[in-house]
Design a protein that fits this description.
The chain is of the alpha/beta class. The chain is built from 19 helices and 12 strands. The chain has a domain of 316 residues: ABC transporter transmembrane region fold (Up-down Bundle), CATH 1.20.1560. A 6-stranded mixed beta sheet has the order 8-9-10-5-11-12, with helices on both faces. The radius of gyration is 35 Å and the shape is elongated. The N terminus is likely disordered. It is found in: Cell membrane.
Length: 620
């Protein structure tokens, strides 16, 4: 088990909209702006510029058609009716129906194009986010909740999808419509138009004030969704533990508390929207009152026709539609902005374990690993290793024993470069780990631990993870070498047997043998066994010891063990306490020293039980 004592820390905003903590760090940064969100989206959209141009042309045509229909109304009232031109009514009817049909066709084309563009953007954004998460350090995942990360990749990106697919099209249409109609209305009567436009600053101010509050509220909603997702993920994966402790009611109460937070956050959003929309509607009706009163006054003075007033009212509705639409889609935009912030929290997080620009590939390793004056701490105030020296001879078995928290697993993590030391150097065959590429390093290291990770899938898929390009025959050979083929072939579907989430359908020994088969298939030069046989029954341990003996042939091996029975044949045993080596030697040499190793041995194997322990041996 890991010596690192840390609990997952949920992401919390740094206080309202004034700032937030960079994801996984204490650095305070400004929240992502809506402008920044649209700029990033446009960077993806412009790659599909032909479709975007076609969509924009459709939207311009829609705006022109919306402009033309009120003109038909004005002509009918001011010219056709007074002239009793019955023959022209049919043309007006054809014009209105034709415009309506074209609006439908153009709307379908523009909606389809923008939805397609939006899906492409989200496809790339989600993949970019996932790839970036894959590039982050192990420490990032140590300090952040799985459920929260899942929510950012799924829920937050889905919210952006809603904004791109519908709201973006509406915004583009409204910009053209608003600009064209405002210019035309100014040309018809600038006085009346300016009176109308005087209501718009109040709409903009209202939208800005409510927008900030809604954005903060939407972020709370999305964080509460992440809390629910995280709790659900933990509860479902730990259902056996919950049932074994009869903790169903306790977990239901905890889940209820999280859903209550989500409910209250959503209610706050609804209340803000319920207060915002009537204010916008009131300002819209104020504009209508201006047109009716001032327009009627102009008509009574003979300065404006009735048809123009009717057309003006129609244009007023079209002019107000962008504001009315924005009052509706502001919820989607602010929700998308909150989701975008949460996505960018991750995208702006930088990995600390990075390759140098001139990093070289590590040649096939002989396996001599040296720690020189290494200092390391997970937290700056809690050192794990201090001026630590250690050497693992190539092709030999080196064992680490000691109390929990003495630094054993940390050493394994440093060799795989999951973390970097704060001081000193770690080399393999004389190459500093920081000077070689991560892939060439980790390709030559195989880890078999007590905490076995298996994916929900078939047995053959899980073994093949050791070498994705391996053939079925190579997978079966690895399973046979790991003493796994026997139990696999007893299943009705053999290697195609589905093992369930985290291998729940297999026993502990079976899961461990699949893990070893995966390591054998990888064929690494360096093997790390981290409590690989802990908590297994005697029969399973015997099968696994045989499999490990095959795996270790000709390789450098680091064995981390609490059970001393597993390391008695190791070439060198180091005893660690508080991050320092206090003893080293072979099993027999350490017993003769009568020190810490001897004390541990006496505790595990009283005199009456001597001779019954098993050992990892090397088949020569």
């Amino acid at each position: 088990m890991s010596e690192r004592n840390s609990s997952p820390n949920m992401f919390r905003p740094g206080g309202g909209m004034g700032g937030m903590r960079r994801f996984g760090t204490g650095e305070k940064v400004k929240p992502a702006s809506i402008y920044g969100m649209f700029v990033r989206i446009y960077a993806h959209v412009r790659q599909d510029w032909k479709s975007l141009a076609a969509a924009v042309l459709c939207l311009i045509a829609i705006s022109l058609l919306q402009f033309a229909i009120p003109q038909l109304t004005r002509i009918t009232i001011d010219h056709i009716i007074p002239a009793r031109a019955f023959d022209r009514l049919f043309l007006v009817c054809i014009g209105v129906l034709g415009a309506a049909a074209m609006l439908g066709i153009l709307g379908y084309i523009s909606t389809s194009l923008i939805a397609t563009i939006g899906q492409k953007v989200l496809y790339k954004l989600r993949n970019d986010l996932y790839r970036h998460m894959q590039s982050l350090d192990v420490s990032f995942f140590d300090s952040n909740r799985t459920g929260d990360l899942m929510s950012r990749v799924t829920n937050d990106v889905n919210i952006l999808q809603q904004m791109i697919s519908s709201s973006m099209m509406q915004l583009i249409t409204d910009v053209f419509t608003f600009t064209g109609i405002a210019l035309y209305m100014l040309w018809i009567d600038w006085r009346l138009t300016l009176l109308l436009l005087a209501t718009f600053p109040f709409m903009i101010l209202t939208t800005k004030l409510f927008g900030k509050r809604m954005r903060a509220s939407f972020r709370t909603v999305q964080e509460s969704v992440a809390d629910v997702s995280d709790h659900l993920q933990n509860a479902l994966t730990g259902i056996r533990l919950i049932k074994s402790f009869t903790a169903e009611d306790y977990e239901s109460e905890r889940f209820s508390a999280r859903t209550l937070k989500n409910r209250d956050a959503n209610i706050r959003v609804v209340r803000l929207r319920a207060a915002y929309e009537p204010i916008i509607d009131f300002l819209n009706f104020a504009g209508l009152a201006i047109v009716l009163v001032f327009g009627a006054w102009l008509a009574m003075k003979g300065q404006m026709t009735v048809g123009t007033i009717v057309a003006f009212i129609a244009y007023l509705r079209l002019l107000q539609n962008p504001i009315r639409h924005f009052s509706r889609i502001i919820n989607t935009i602010q929700q998308a902005a909150a989701g975008y912030e949460r996505v960018m929290d991750i995208m702006n997080t930088k990995a600390e374990i990075v390759e140098k620009q001139d990093a070289r590939s590590l040649p096939p390793a002989e396996g001599r690993i040296v720690f020189r004056q290494v200092d390391f701490a997970y937290n700056s105030d809690t050192p794990v290793l201090s001026k630590f020296d250690l050497e693992l001879a190539e092709g030999k078995i080196t064992a680490l024993v000691g109390s929990s928290g003495s630094g054993k697993t940390t050493i394994a993590h440093l060799i795989a470069r999951f973390y970097d030391p704060q001081g000193g150097a770690i080399t393999i065959d004389g190459y500093d780990l920081k000077d070689v590429t991560l892939s060439s390093l980790r390709e030559q290291i195989g880890i078999v631990s007590q905490d076995i990770v298996l994916f929900n899938g078939s047995i053959i898929e899980n073994i093949r993870y050791g070498s994705i390009q391996a053939t079925d025959e190579e997978v079966r050979a690895a399973a046979k070498a790991a003493n796994a083929s026997g139990f696999i072939e007893t299943f009705a579907q053999g290697y195609e047997t589905q093992i369930g989430e985290r291998g729940v359908k297999l026993s502990g020994g079976q899961k461990q043998r699949i893990s070893i088969a995966r390591a054998i298939l990888k064929n690494p030069r360096i093997i790390i066994l981290d409590e690989a046989t802990a908590s297994l029954d005697t029969e399973s341990e015997h099968h696994i010891q045989e499999a490990l003996a095959r795996l270790l042939q000709g390789r450098t091996c680091l064995v981390i063990a609490h059970r001393l029975s597993t390391i008695q044949q190791a070439d060198r045993i180091y005893v660690l306490e508080a991050g320092q080596i206090v003893e080293y030697g072979t099993h027999d040499e350490l017993l003769l020293q009568a020190g810490r190793y001897s004390q541990l041995y006496e505790l595990q194997f009283p005199q009456s039980e001597r001779g019954r322990e098993t050992t990892i041996t090397r088949n020569n």
